[in-house]
Amino acid sequence: MQTTLGQPNVVSILFFFLFTLTTLYITYLAAKRTKTASEYYAAGRSITGFQNGLALAGDYMSAASFLGIAGLVALKGYDGLIYSIGFLVGWPIVMFLIAEQLRNLGKYTFADVVAYRLKQKPIRIASSFGSLATVLLYLIAQMVGAGSLIKLLFGLPYDLAVVLVGTIMIIYVLFGGMIATTWVQIIKACLLLGGATVLAIFTLVKFGFSFNELFGFISEKYGEKRLLPGGLVANPWDAISLGIALMFGTAGLPHILMRFYTVPDAKEARKSVFYATGFIGYFYILTFIIGFGSAAIVGENLIKSIEKGGNMAAPLLAEAVGGTIFLGFIAAVAFATILAVVAGLTLAGAGALSHDLYTNVIKKGRATEEEQVKVARLATLILGILAIFLGIAFKGQNVAFMVGLAFAIAASANFPSLLLSIFWKKFSTAGVVAGILTGVTLSVVLIILSPTVWVDIFKNPAPIFPWKNPALISMPASFIMAILVSLLTPEKEAQEKFEEEKVRTYLGVGIE
Fold it and tell me: Is the dihedral of CA 445, 450, 453, 454 positive or negative?
């Protein structure tokens, strides 16, 4: 099979301009409606459950999901499913444990919930630390991925691709805030679900819509081992640790948690998770078909020759089953996917900087609406420029570990503090700070000592920490430290406010 990947594709460029012009027009309309802090951070609580479900799916189905998991399944077979299932099963945790509580207790960021009955300043600083660490690591991975992928998909130079993604993203968030970001996510989710569905159908047509025939072909071509566990994660403890990071990390990602403030009440928050889980579940089933379809139709050798990690498996499959026009459409969808995710991440980072640190720590909650929006836009600009700079600075580096690290920090630092603040009466301010710092520090140190960094990047012969993901150690450690320190530093006033918090948590009395 011959491929045109890496050369400018007229169809890709046309779709790209159509998507960009449409979303910039939406941003223009959204900018007229974005005057207050509530409109900037939370779209004025005007998003419905269904719309937010699509936007959540758009936020979550990143290029790493679409291109990365399809590639993993194509090259590693069955074990690629760990990522599909891990990303999906985090959603029931979000729905049953935190969605309603977040909407009823919070305002713009998850730190609002954690700090509800505790001391604001130390909680906001510690939570911002966890949020910004997660957002920046995720953002670097997305920007570096964006530069590499767009270079291959559109034939653009790496640096230009990073600047282009960063500039368009800054325009979305700077002027349109959460309203524009939400509609960009919705359009992107529809394009991605539609494109992946057509790609899966075209693939199954080749095998008479028979999974037996598809898997029989894979077994014959690559051997039965491709359909059995052990191709990617051979150590069961490593597999469990990875699964924990993916499951609980979802419930600690700042840009996902922020979306629950865009709906009017807790009922719409639950509905949005219900819809999002359906869309995301359907999408991951498609990545499974696309991955095995790529292995069968495109072939492992060609996939590796274009990009050794397998990230081009889905575009190559699109070209094989639908020609260059369909490749152009899928390439434009991948570009839209990257844009939408970096926009959501930047808005979450801006929320931590402006709402948590500036408004609540520096100004002690006394900033005017106009001042809050002004600082939020300045924070967006700073984060956007920083993302472009880091994207170029990390050019050519293997940053795959950063996504794992972002999920590990979210699972180890943000999730324990959020869960304990909602459900445990004796949780104290010192306990929150200890839990977050333990989670962040252990995650970072263990990832550096793991095979992913210690061997693959620093070129040492053997890792000091044997697993690729530290969540199995760092998340329990964060819980233990948070509980022990809370028991040693009881806060009578915070415990007395717990009953008041429960009323608001379950009945929504006094929510904005």
Answer: positive
* Residue 211 pLDDT greater than 70, yes or no: yes
Burial class (CB in 10 A: 0-12, 13-18, 19+), 211: exposed
Residues 6+ apart with CB under 8 A from 142: 62, 63, 64, 338, 341, 342, 345
Q: Specify whether the CB–CB gap between 320 and 160 falls below 8 A.
A: no
Say whether pLDDT at 400 is over 70: no
Q: Is the pLDDT of residue 195 over 90?
A: yes
For the cut 90, the answer to whether the pLDDT of residue 293 exceeds it is yes
Q: Amino acid identity of 163? A: V
In sign, the C-alpha dihedral spanning 373, 267, 345, 109 is: positive
**Full-prediction pTM beyond 0.85?**
yes
Cβ–Cβ under 8 Å, residues 150 and 335? yes
Q: How far apart are CA 184 and CA 172, in angstroms?
A: 8
**210 Cβ partners below 8 Å, 6+ apart?**
204
Position 90 confidence tier, pLDDT thresholds 50, 70, 90: confident
DSSP state letters, 38-58:
HHHHHGGG---HHHHHHHHHH
- Closest by CA to 269, choosing from 260, 256, 278, is 260
296-328, pLDDT tens digit by residue?
999 988 888 887 778 888 989 999 998 888 888
Which contacts qualify for 31-39: CB closer than 8 Å, 24 or more apart? 31/175, 31/176, 31/180, 33/179, 34/175, 34/176, 34/177, 34/179, 34/180, 34/373, 35/369, 35/373, 36/369, 36/373, 37/108, 37/355, 37/369, 37/372, 37/373, 37/376, 38/512, 39/177, 39/178, 39/179
Tokens representing 66?
Answer: 């679409």
Shortest CA distance to 474 belongs to which of 511, 503, 435? 435
SS (H, E, C) 409-435: HHHHHHHHHHHHHHHCCCCCHHHHHHH
- Residue 399 pLDDT greater than 70, yes or no: no
Predicted confidence (pLDDT) at residue 490 exceeds the cutoff of 90: yes
